[in-house]
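Sat 14:20. Reprocessing the chain from the morning session after the first attempt stalled halfway. Input below, unchanged.
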Amino acid sequence: MRKILLFITLVLSHSTAIACSFAPGYDEFLPSPLYKKKNHPLAIPKASVESIKRGYDDGNGGSCSDAGIIKIKFENENPIRATGYKLKIISGTFESHVIPDYEVMPSRYNPSENSMFFVWLDGSYNNQEKIDFVLQIIAVSPEGDESEPYNLKIQHAGGKSN
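Finished this time. Tokens:
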């Protein structure tokens, strides 16, 4: 029995992983009672597309090369740690599961960047479809107040990737 367990352990420890995962590129916005007394005024959020990376086939089924990543960067018009965002696709089409349907904020792991990224399975083929949608962004204060919406056009021509 010990030899079988040793054999299974050796096989599993020497095999290559065939999975890929990413940490989320944002955090869920959970208002803090510490901020509630500070009365943060909200400005209309301004954001830009910092980068769009498209998936491709690198021949390794265990790599993350088939992941697409859209990174958006916010200007610093609202307090980074005290502002959440509601995101909604208002025109065009895109992967429905990529944009969260709850309030989010930039990741706490690198708050100075004031950015978020969204990952999806873009496909392991090297000719990608175009991306063309408008993302509505509404800033949310810890008190639940909302800003006027900001509409961010997100586009990528598609075609050959990598």
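The longest strand covers residues 84-93.
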